[in-house]
């Protein structure tokens, strides 16, 4: 039931969010070569952010032509958006699920805060970062000499490292 004038804006926003999410979901599962966890990451972030999530997807991840995904996503700013989407999707989903559970149980705010923090961290880590039983290999190039902090989203070439941060010959 629409009670106040701003309710129309909310209805319009939710409709835009639903259409944006449907488009991203359809496009992700019909030809985008991203890993499944990244597909779900963009879908969830678009669900949470509506047209802004769609804009991020189109700018940073939507394959312009078949076979051009790696080249299209190679700029560092696009990899940064992908990394952020990857992390936000997991953490936000855990926090939202925990908020629903704690609100349903009528728990106090301080317990809600702790449960949301733990759920956001755990869901992000165990579902979106390193699901049990899975391993990811990353290939990267150090462009300048020095010590490098290896993170799970940097894609380039010659040196290979695994998710456990042990180096292997590339």
Automatic annotation (TrEMBL):
Keyword annotations of the record: Membrane, Plasmid, Transmembrane, Transmembrane helix
Domain (DUF4396) ranges: 77-130
Taxonomic lineage: Bacteria, Pseudomonadati, Pseudomonadota, Alphaproteobacteria, Hyphomicrobiales
Transmembrane region(s): 7-26, 38-60, 81-101, 107-128
Name under which the protein is recorded: DUF4396 domain-containing protein
Organism annotation: Nitrobacter hamburgensis (strain DSM 10229 / NCIMB 13809 / X14)
InterPro entries per record: Cupredoxin, DUF4396
Record bears the keyword Ligase: no
One Pfam family cited in the UniProt record for this chain: DUF4396
